[in-house]
Amino acid sequence: MRILIIINDAPYGIEKAYNALRLAMNMQKEKPEIELTVFLMADAVGCAIPNQKTAQGYYNIERMLKAVLNKKGKLKCCGTCLDARGLDSIQLIEGAERSTMQELTRLSFEADKVITF
To answer: Which residues face 4 on adjacent strands?
Structure first.
């Protein structure tokens, strides 16, 4: 089964990215055989910035993304969204890939389930 999770909002301030990644991690735990792709758009591209520092006891989106990647998940970041936020030349976390609307279109067509946050 192929699952695509699209995240649109910033990593912190609201909990959409947190909840999307909680779901992704649980899906991988329950069904390790799934092909899971997380696609970051709009302000969510900030989720892939490395070296995030959060308060003790507070969730850390970078660690959550790495957990998804460690279980063979894929992480795509909208290139246009990176550019629009001045993040075009920033190094993203290991495993994150710059992507395009064309790739998102293809991933959407190929997915058995598309979930948006």
So the answer is: 37, 114
This prediction's pTM:
0.95
Give 90's pLDDT tier (boundaries 50, 70, 90): confident
pLDDT single digits (tens) 12-46: 999 999 999 999 999 999 999 999 999 999 999 99
Alpha-carbon gap, residue 94 to 103, rounded angstroms:
19
Cβ atoms of residues 9 and 117 within 8 Å: yes
Name every residue whose Cβ is closer than 8 Å to that of residue 79 and which is 6 or more positions away in sequence.
Answer: 88, 98, 99, 100
Alpha carbon dihedral 84, 63, 22, 92, in 10-degree steps, equals 20
Q: Which amino acid, 8?
A: N
- Alpha-carbon distance 89 to 115, whole Å? 29
Q: Which domains does the chain have, with CATH numbers?
A: 2-116 (3.40.1260.10)
CA distance 25 to 31: 10
